[in-house]
Automatic annotation (TrEMBL):
Signal peptide, first to last residue: none
UniProt domain Tetracyclin repressor-like C-terminal: residue ranges: 1-72
Pfam families registered for this protein in UniProt: TetR_C_27
Segments traversing the membrane: none
Protein name: Transcriptional regulator
Length: 94
């Protein structure tokens, strides 16, 4: 399964681009909702969404995930730390 996903990512750039755009749209909606509710402090939800997507790339990309697993890195702890960092960067208070 992993090899199929990696091959698809290398051969189907249009599909990957559409997927990334969809993820950014979802992140933007979540950020905008949080901002409107006063839970986040973001001036530009679209820009923040692109930054959030970039920050999560190591956890989305199968080759990077494989690298972490092969080198014994705790991806769950890393992901949780990244989520905390992103929320803090978006102005979320503890």
């Amino acid at each position: 399964m992993h090899d199929m996903i990696v091959a698809a990512m290398q051969e189907n750039r249009a599909i990957i681009k559409a997927h990334i755009e969809r993820m950014v749209t979802i992140f933007e909606a979540i950020i905008r909702e949080g901002t409107e509710a006063g839970e986040l402090k973001v001036e530009d939800p679209a820009e923040a969404a692109r930054a959030v997507n970039a920050a999560f790339t190591p956890f989305f990309h199968p080759v990077l995930i494989e690298h972490c697993v092969q080198h014994g890195e705790d991806t769950e702890d890393g992901l949780r730390a990244q989520i905390r960092f992103i929320l803090k960067a978006l102005g979320k208070s503890a």
